[in-house]
Design goal:
This protein folds into two domains: about 50 residues, Arc Repressor Mutant, subunit A; about 130 residues, Tetracycline Repressor, domain 2. It is built from nine helices and two strands; from the N terminus they run H-H-H-H-H-H-E-E-H-H-H. It has a two-stranded antiparallel ribbon with strand order 1-2. The N and C termini lie far apart (about 65 Å). Helix 1 packs antiparallel against helix 2, helix 1 crosses helix 6 and helix 8 runs antiparallel to helix 9. By secondary structure, the chain is mainly α. Helices cover about 70% and strands about 0% of the residues. A hairpin with a 2-residue loop joins strand 1 and strand 2.
Length: about 190
Amino acid sequence: MRSTVELRGEILAAARAEFARYGLAGGRIDRIARTAQASKERLYAHFGDKETLFRDVVAADSAEFFRAVTLRPDAVSEFAGDIYDLARVHPEHYRMITWAHLEGVTLDQPRADGRPIPDQHVAAIEAAQAEGHVDSLWEPVDLLVLLIGIGLAWMHLPHPNATTEDPTVITRRRAAAVEAAARIIAVGR
């Protein structure tokens, strides 16, 4: 027999797959319950309703996504490459964040060590500016958004070749993201 923690984890995994594919509106509780081998009643007992389950999955994915990368003051442009890598390897996390935006679900800021992760990234950009690694004309939060956008650019391309497993293409795309970021942050531009 599964423990409560195991059942909850299996429900969350099934919900992640369902919501990543269909979003909140298209996701079906009966499919989630069937995939998790749980009754709908158990699912509702753990999460209350479909939107709460969706929010829990998005919160977990958002936190995992942003905890997986670190913006370092001495390697700010690398952050765009790290975001590219993360989105390529774990597109389901980014998909969940996108579904939340499309569904109009307000997201809480992902946290690590008790602090919002974006605040940690902004502090790293401020440190990079103070150390002369990043042009100080940038508003740190604006630059953070642009760096994330550069890293996610291939996720948005409506083209059949947007996703690839070709290591040469992956290396080239990552390098392009890092180079674009480096040009944007260059001091004295």
